[in-house]
Amino acid sequence: MAVDKLQTVFSETLGLPAEVDWSALAYRKVPEWDSVAHMQLVGEIEEAFGVMLDTADVLGMSSFAAARDILSKHGVAA
Amino acid sequence: MTGLRLDGRVALVTGSTRGIGWCTARALAAHGATVIVNSRADAEAAKARAAELTEAHCVPADALACDAADPEQIREAYRRIFGTHRRLDILVNNAGILEDALIGMISDDLVERVLRVNTFGPLHHLQAAARLMRRHGGGAIVNLTSIIGTHGNVGQAVYGSAKAAVVGLTRSAAKELAPHGIRVNAVAPGLIDTDMTRGIPPERYRELVDGIGMGRVGTPEQVANAVLFLAGDLAAYITGQVLGVDGGMRI
């Protein structure tokens, strides 16, 4: 998996500013990533990487790093 | 009628190897949908039914074994649907069981069994289906409730609770999913001639028929027609509704 691709999905879906501290980016820690945006983000990640996440994954995707780990679990190479 | 055509749409009908589910699967396939036939555990029966649909209606059809009482099987089912079809446009939450008991004689096991299949199953299916539907701009979900869920009946406190919960699920999900183009409606059959209702004791069955304004039981095809309507574009502006198909039944 190219991390840049995941960053692009996050940036475009959440409408993030140009400069993002990816290591600190977490659910509900920025105004752009609220519960409504979260479901949109899940859908965009699934579409971009051709996977279907479990409900546990959706609930566990609490940060950018967690999203990367979840994709790795689904066989999308990190 | 063009508003009834479902060409190119993928539909999952739970519990669709017989009864109302099978009639619904046939109705959707007859109008062009690719139908995924579902059986709780009998994969061969589902495959045979899928083959019947393809032969009769010249549409693709698929088969899926999945127990509505098991959330993990439901999750796996949607992974498979995503892998095979990449989309889902219609979900018919039909799978259900009927078990009656008078208040005071309701066992924990009965409560667990009936709610797992009739309430938790539809909820888990709806949640997973909605995620696939919103990717492609929307879809239609039709939940099978019952006149028992809307009006209640003696001996059916558990079944009635389970089916009433489906009404609540339908109305809440309709509100939440409307912005995503996903419509959620329910059909509430009255007394319908299926294997499930043939188990009702004869005397009680006669009493129930006597309470039907039209004086006769309904057919699975008549329920399937209501589902077909709600699943398609003729119902494009209808969501959060419960449509009775009961011949004017009083209960």
TrEMBL record, chain A:
InterPro entries: ACP-like_sf
Superkingdom of origin organism: Bacteria
SUPFAM superfamilies given in the database record: ACP-like
Protein name per UniProt: Acyl carrier protein
Annotated organism of origin: Virgisporangium aliadipatigenens
Lineage summary: Bacteria, Bacillati, Actinomycetota, Actinomycetes, Micromonosporales
Automatic annotation (TrEMBL), chain B:
Annotated GO MF terms: oxidoreductase activity
A Pfam family that the UniProt record links to this protein: adh_short_C2
Key words, A-Z: Oxidoreductase
Record InterPro entries: KR_dom, NAD(P)-bd_dom_sf, Sc_DH/Rdtase_CS, SDR, SDR_fam
GO biological process: one example: monocarboxylic acid metabolic process
The UniProt record lists the keyword Oxidoreductase: yes
Top-rank lineage group of the source organism: Bacteria
SMART domains on file: PKS_KR (SM00822)
Ketoreductase domain: residues covered: 9-190
Family in the record: Belongs to the short-chain dehydrogenases/reductases (SDR) family.
Protein name as it appears in the record: 3-oxoacyl-ACP reductase
Organism, scientific name: Virgisporangium aliadipatigenens
Highest classification ranks of the organism: Bacteria, Bacillati, Actinomycetota, Actinomycetes, Micromonosporales
